[in-house]
Amino acid sequence: MPTELVVHSNVLKNTLLVSRQDVASNYRAVKCLINGGAPRPRTAVGGKKTRAARFFQSAGSPRQQFLAVVLLGGALLADGCSAYAQVATPVAAANEFHFVVLGDSQFHDPAGFNRIVDDVKLLHPAFVIQVGDMIRGYSGDLAKIREEWNRFRRQIAPLAPIAFMPVPGNHDLYNAGRKADVELEKIYREYWGATYYSFDYQNSLFVVLNTDAPEQENRIESEQWTWLSKTLNASSAQHVFIFMHRPPHTLDNAEALHDLLREHRVRYVFYGHHHHYHFDERDGIAYVMTNAAANSALTQDSAGSFDHLLHVSVRDLTTALAVVRADAIENPEFVHPSDNYDLYNISRELIARKIPLLDVAEDDGRYRWLMPLRLKNPTQRSLNLFIQCASNDDRWLFAPQSIEPVRLAAEASTVVALEASYTVERQPESSPTCLIRIPIQKRDGEWLDYTVEVEGQLDR
After folding, report:
1. Which tens digits make up the pLDDT trace of 158-199?
2. Which of 22, 273, 374, 429 is most solvent-facing, going by the fewest CB within 10 Å?
3. How does DSSP assign 332-361, residue by residue?
4. CA angle (268, 297, 310) in 5-degree steps
5. Residue 18 banded pLDDT, cuts 50, 70, 90
6. Is the pLDDT of residue 110 over 80?
7. Separation of alpha carbons 50 and 47, rounded Å
8. How many other CB atoms are there within 10 angstroms of residue 201's CB atom?
9. Are 370 and 358 in contact (CB under 8 A)?
10. Quick one: pLDDT at residue 243?
């Protein structure tokens, strides 16, 4: 007998009241029993009219009518005796947005970085922050440095109107002697403004630090330290995000900085410099290294050596971080309906996958069969077919041995006459097989190679 659940339905509120015992039963689905189209009346509960629906784990007799209801964690609603799972309604957040963090680029792979920029544009974040080493730098030639900054601006121009927020790195501020240079810092300010700054966005505070200031390389101190402390003290933001170029654990005053950030409940610290990805959480602070398209010393993806972007989401009191590999995002127009349907129709209608072999009389110690390849082009485009035949043990022989490319006009059909044979001394333990390759050009110009394998069937 099926286990019965009795669930009361409040007529006024139209809501099924499920007991704790019922919920604890962990039913994936229930059935609403309709007795003659009308539910059985029940006595009033709390002065309100009620009625009951009877639920079963499994169907009863064929005469009973059932309506399946899936328990999805929300309330169940009743309309008469019909029960429905309540459709969840999205709840708007008071503060909800996402932003992107990019790592080093340095013109190591400018084409790869350009593709990352285009990927970011498709995500359409509130803003983008790049954590330094945007140019090659390391030069005292001021004209050359300006040329590099102009080149970098052209790289990120497609992001507009998305705001771009830079973080200075050593390649952005260092001269040929690999020292922070006041003149290079001036040029940086001409293009981007302050080398350290903060801004508020909705419920969050964003702080950009300079780990490569002249006479303060590899540390945060003096005026910048005082400013940072005051900025954090003055903020009542629900989330605090810190951005710098050098890894904070490598700074000369790393522990003092960590203590300050922990005191102010910083949630994330993003940085670059070492050209790989890693994540470490310490005292509630997530330390995240990132790399956009700069050369990496390693090639192992599992060690973080891959090009990527970071996608950060904020929703009221919650945050989420996603690592998105470079080239993982596609433009929504990259597949046209004809690309999909043409391939689908070719896979279904071009040729049968199994072909019965037609016996031909034995001749000169050789057993022969006809293997006709009946081809049909189900598309509105012309197709070129390239056919080659073989067998796993190489004992089948084919004639012709070399098959000329077959051109099929739109919706045309043809038959390729093929003979498969073997000798008495070399009887095969495999089937004759033909591989048909069809180059297909997508609407966006990309060429695909679609292949079909056809097997000849021998009635032994």
Report:
1. 999 999 999 999 999 999 999 999 999 999 999 999 999 999
2. 429
3. TTSS-HHHHHHHHHHHHHS--SEEEPEEEE
4. 30
5. very low
6. yes
7. 9
8. 17
9. yes
10. 98
Neighbours of 340 (CB within 10 A): 11
Q: Which residue has the tokens 């003659």?
A: 36
Q: What domains lie within the chain, and their CATH numbers? A: 4-85 (no CATH), 96-325 (3.60.21.10), 337-457 (2.60.40.10)
In order of 223, 228, 249, 298, the CA distances from 206 in angstroms are 18, 11, 20, 31
Q: What pLDDT does 85 receive?
A: 76
**Could you give the CA distance from residue 278 to residue 288 in angstroms, rounded to a whole number?**
6
Q: Please name the residue that has the structure tokens 């021998």.
A: 458
Distance CA(271)–CA(266), nearest Å, equals 14
Average pLDDT of the segment spanning 313-339:
96
Report the predicted TM-score, pTM, of the whole model to 2 decimal places.
Answer: 0.77
Q: Can you give the pLDDT at residue 84?
A: 63
Q: Are 104 and 272 in contact (CB under 8 A)?
A: yes
b/e map 412-427, b = 16+ CB within 10 Å: eeeebebbbbbeeeee
- Number of residues in the chain: 460
What is the C-alpha separation between 321 and 312, in angstroms, rounded? 5
Residue whose tokens read 């509120």: 13
Question: pLDDT > 90: what percent of the chain?
Answer: 77
